[in-house]
Amino acid sequence: MKIHLDTAKCQGHGRCYSLAPELFDCDDLGTAVVLVTGELDDDQLKKATLAASNCPEFAIVIGD
Fold first, then answer.
1. What does the pLDDT look like over 31-56, one tens digit per residue?
2. Which of 15, 25, 31, 55 is the most exposed place for a label (fewest CB within 10 A)?
3. Which Pfam families match (predicted)?
């Protein structure tokens, strides 16, 4: 599984990088940036799923 981020949907609420700072960061405008581009291990998958479920814009999708 991988993290897919739709930056056009991101409004910069920061929930993803607050919940999973090892997976997400933000750019100079506050838009989320994915730090892990490869396959997620089990711990990363749990944290990515938590971040995705807390994204108000549904900008984060976990999948292949």
1. 999 999 999 999 999 999 999 999 99
2. 25
3. Fer4_15
Q: Give me the numbers of helices (H) and strands (E) for the chain, helices first please.
A: 2, 4
Q: What is the tally of structural domains in the chain? A: 1
The CATH number covering residue 58 comes to 3.30.70.20
pLDDT given at position 48: 98
Residue 5 CB partners (closer than 8 Å, separation 6+): 32, 33, 34, 59, 60, 61
Range of the domain at 32: 2-63
Q: Residue 23: how many CB atoms within 10 A of its CB?
A: 21
- pTM given for the model: 0.93
Classify residue 10 by burial, with Cβ atoms within 10 Å: 0-12, 13-18, 19+.
buried
